[in-house]
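Methods — Computational structure assignment.
A single polypeptide chain was analysed. Its primary sequence is given first, followed by the predicted tertiary structure written as structure tokens.
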Amino acid sequence: MSTPAQDAAPTVETVEVKVPPLPESVADATVGPWHKQVGDWVERDENLVDLETDKVVLEVPAPRSGRLVAILHRQGETVPAGAVLARLDPGGAPPGDRPARSGTGPGARAAAAPPAGRPEAAGPQAAPPGQASSPGAPPMGPAVRRLLEEHGLEPDRIPATGPGGRLLKEDVLRHLEGASAAPRPEQRVPMSRLRARIAERLVQAQREAAMLTTFNEVDMSAVQALRRRHGAAFEERHGVRLGLMSFFVRAVVEALRRFPVLNASVDGTDVIYHGYYDVGVAVATPRGLVVPVIRDADRRSFAELERAIRDFAARAREGRLALEELQGGTFTITNGGVFGSLLSTPILNPPQTGILGMHRIQDRPVAVEGEVRIRPMMYLALTYDHRLVDGADAVQFLVAVKEALEDPARLLLEL
């Protein structure tokens, strides 16, 4: 007679892995790729799975060390905050401490091997090429057998059209022609949440805003000369390289001071004029375009701007930007020149009323004081919301940006 202790089955106290609190205004997330599978050992704080929201990717670390015993939501499923994603067994043995399973190991393999001199039971085997796989199959001619042997084909897999089901040479050739005409590959994958959100906002901008683009070109000689002259000292002093983007941010801020309508946003039938300058800088990532925002760009030095831009770019590519760093913004700058774009028309980032597009710097002949000279030129494109911004303001804004870049001393003197 068994005792109660013998009848009681051992219980395993598992640890739940839950969806962490989501950022404000985010209702749910999509489960991304799992970095561990059921049965794997997981160390505490090791990333188990990625969760994708409309803006950022969140990592879900293991709350404790243990063995992953259950995955409750697979990649592509939508989960709310607090949902249980998986379960861990903290009592499992870590790698190296597990006993050998029964039925495995050298002894088990030796026991499973058939005795010497006693052949294993032969399973069904395919007939060699050129021979019929069934005893009643019609005979084949030498030309057919030769084709089958040359191409390693099985006769049973080729439709036979000869008398009595006999395989003909024409049947084999027709099969070879069909095999060479392989179908063109296609792959259908669901659109990521970030890509879907980008598409939604772009369509919204096209549908709601009266977008118009004005163009100009800027001579980058002065900025390049300034970077050559002071770049090394700037990097030694501030620990960051002097790039182009900080000049553009400062030039945009000065132009926005003169034309505040391009620093405004449209809210229904209201216009909101912002008394601060939060400039978004578009960053391309493997998951899509994101626009982190430099808060109070007017109060930052060139070194602070460069540090912020490089930090945003690095963390954006790693998917480590916080949602609040992508929200807001009163104006946006996008740089297609890093990919070789010579000219483009950027799309507004709603509800903003302006976006500046930078492009590739290209040596071109230009007229300077009555002479033709080769200068490093860049096309600028300003897309604006014509519901609020008049063409005169947009053109003068772009001219102000051009003048500040062609004479960088204006940025220091706030001219």
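Note: Residues 1-10, 99-133 have pLDDT under 50 and may be disordered.
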